[in-house]
Design brief:
about 450 residues, mainly alpha, two-stranded antiparallel ribbon, 15 helices, 10 strands, about 5% strand
Length: about 450
C-alpha cells in the first residue's frame, strides 16, 4: 500500500483519523443493524402470540423488547460519537459540502427521536394497553429504524456519486439537497444495507437459540425463538443476493476502478475472468482461481465486455487492492453460504414441516450470526476503502478532507478504550437479560414463564 493512502501531504495524521472512523463505523454498524431489523421481528412475534395464544411468542417479545432497549441506548452513544467525528476528523468535508449532503443527517435526527419516543411508549405500555394498540405503537419504531438507515446510507451514497451542486473557484453554488440525497447510488446502496440489517438481526437472533438447542433445549420457546428470526433472514437472503448483483452492476458502470480493485484486475481487457482468491503482488493478481469470461458476463451481461483495469489510473488514485479484493471475496462467500443454509432449512420445512434434524444444521445456524456480521463489515470495507483515495468521489481527496491537527492516533487509542468498555458492558447486560426469569404474562401461564430461557 502506498504512503499516499495513509499520510496527508502536509504530514497530518491521516492514518489516525482513518483508524478512528473505521473503528467507530465498524462498531456502530453492528448495533445499527440490530436496531433497524429487531423491531420488525419483535412485532411479528407479538402479533403471532396474539393471534395464536402461543405463550412462547409473548415471552420472546418481552425478552427481545428489553434487549432492544439496551441496544438502542448503546447505539445512541456510538452514533453520537460518529456525529462528532464527522466534524472533528473531516472538517473540510463538512465545511465545504455540508450544505449539499447535510439534509439526510437532519432527517435522521427526526427519525431517531420518533424511534426513541415510541420505543419508550412500547416498553412502558406492556400492561397498560390492549394488545393491538400496543403492537401498533411499535410500528413507528420499525419505520423510523428503516428510515434512519436510508437517510444515513444516502449521505454515504452521495460521497460515492456527488451530485446536486456546482463548484467553481472554490465556491459551492446551485445546491439541491434533495437531488443530492436521491443521487444515483442511493437506490442500490440503501436497499442493500437495509436487507443486510435484516440478515444480520435475523441470523444473529437465531444463532442464540441455535446454541441453546445444541445444548439440548428443544422446548417450544427455543424452537420459536430460532424459527421466526431465522425465517425472516432466510427469506431476505436470496433477495439480497439479487440486490448485490444490482449494486455490482452499478459499481461496474460508475466506479470501474473500484470494480477493478474488487476483482484484482490490473490490465484493461475484454472477456475478463472472475477471480476466486488470489493476492495482488506488484501489478498482478497471483494464486487465484479463474472462471473464464465470468467477470465480463456478470458485470455487463456480455462475456466479451471490456473491464477497466487499475493501470488506467496513476498509483496515487488506486485503492488498496488486497483489502478491497478480500473484503469482496469474504462478503460474497458468506452470502452464498447463508443462502445454502437457508435453502437447506426451506427444503426440510417443505418436506416435513420441520427443521433439519442434523446437528450440522444447528452448528451452521449458530455460526450464521457471526458470519452475517462479518459479511456486513466486509461489505463496508469494500464500499469505503474501494472509494479511496477520495472522500467525495473524484471531487475531494481524503488527504484534503482530514483535520490538519497532528496526533490523531491518540484519539484512536482513547476511542478503542471507550469501545472496549462499551462492548464489555453491553455483553454483560445482554447476558444478564438471558439469565433473568421473564415476567409472567398471565396467571395461567405461570408454569411456562418460570422456566429459565435464553
Amino acid at each position: 500500500m502506498t504512503a499516499v493512502h495513509w499520510v496527508a501531504a502536509d504530514g497530518t495524521d491521516l492514518w489516525g483519523a482513518r483508524m478512528q472512523m473505521g473503528l467507530s463505523l465498524g462498531w456502530h454498524i453492528i448495533i445499527a443493524c440490530l436496531g433497524v431489523a429487531m423491531p420488525a421481528v419483535m412485532l411479528m412475534a407479538e402479533w403471532r402470540g396474539h393471534r395464536t395464544g402461543d405463550v412462547a411468542y409473548r415471552l420472546l417479545t418481552r425478552r427481545w423488547a428489553r434487549a432492544l432497549g439496551v441496544l438502542f441506548a448503546v447505539g445512541a452513544v456510538s452514533g453520537t460519537i460518529l456525529s462528532f467525528e464527522m466534524g472533528l476528523l473531516w472538517p473540510e468535508l463538512m465545511g465545504r459540502y455540508g450544505q449539499v449532503f447535510g439534509l439526510p443527517f437532519a432527517l435522521e435526527g427526526f427519525a431517531f427521536f420518533i424511534e426513541a419516543i415510541f420505543l419508550g411508549i412500547y416498553l412502558y405500555a406492556w400492561d397498560r394497553m390492549a394488545t393491538v394498540p400496543h403492537i401498533l405503537s411499535g410500528v413507528p419504531i420499525v419505520l423510523a429504524g428503516v428510515l434512519s438507515a436510508f437517510f444515513i446510507v444516502s449521505a454515504n451514497a452521495w460521497m460515492q456519486q456527488p451530485v446536486g451542486f456546482r463548484e467553481a473557484g472554490g465556491r459551492i453554488t446551485e445546491v439541491s439537497p434533495w437531488r443530492a440525497m436521491f443521487n444515483p447510488a442511493t437506490p442500490p446502496q440503501t436497499v442493500h444495507m437495509i436487507l443486510a440489517a435484516f440478515m444480520v438481526a435475523g441470523f444473529a437472533m437465531a444463532s442464540v437459540y441455535a446454541v441453546a438447542m445444541l445444548r439440548g433445549r428443544r422446548d417450544r420457546y427455543h424452537k420459536a425463538g430460532f424459527l421466526l428470526p431465522f425465517t425472516v433472514a432466510g427469506v431476505v437472503t436470496p433477495f439480497q443476493i439479487g440486490v448485490g448483483d444490482w449494486a455490482a452492476h452499478f459499481v461496474a458502470s460508475n466506479q470501474p476502478v473500484k470494480l477493478a480493485a474488487m476483482e484484482g484486475v490490473f490490465q484493461t481487457a475484454r472477456g475478463v475472468p472472475l477471480h476466486l482468491g488470489g493476492i495482488a503482488v506488484g501489478d498482478e493478481l497471483r494464486y487465484s482461481l479463474e472462471i473464464p469470461y465470468a467477470l465480463s458476463l456478470l458485470a455487463h451481461w456480455n462475456p466479451n465486455a471490456e473491464i477497466v483495469g487499475l493501470l488506467t489510473v496513476p498509483p496515487a488514485d488506486r485503492p488498496p487492492v488486497n483489502i478491497v479484493h478480500w473484503g469482496f471475496q469474504v462478503m460474497v462467500a458468506i452470502g452464498f453460504g447463508l443462502l445454502a443454509l437457508s435453502a437447506w432449512a426451506a427444503l426440510a420445512w417443505w418436506r416435513r414441516r420441520a427443521l433439519p434434524r442434523s446437528r450440522w444444521f444447528l452448528w451452521g445456524a449458530a455460526a450464521a450470526g457471526p458470519a452475517a456480521v462479518l459479511a456486513v463489515e466486509a461489505g463496508w470495507i469494500v464500499t469505503e476503502v474501494g472509494r479511496q483515495p477520495w472522500t467525495v468521489f473524484r471531487t475531494l481527496r481524503t488527504s484534503g478532507a482530514v483535520n490538519p491537527a497532528p496526533g490523531l492516533i491518540w484519539g484512536f487509542v482513547l476511542l478503542a478504550v471507550v469501545y472496549a468498555v462499551l462492548t464489555v458492558v453491553t455483553v454483560y447486560v445482554m447476558r444478564r437479560l438471558t439469565r433473568d426469569v421473564p415476567v409472567p404474562v398471565a396467571p395461567q401461564e405461570h408454569d411456562v414463564s418460570q422456566t429459565r430461557v435464553v
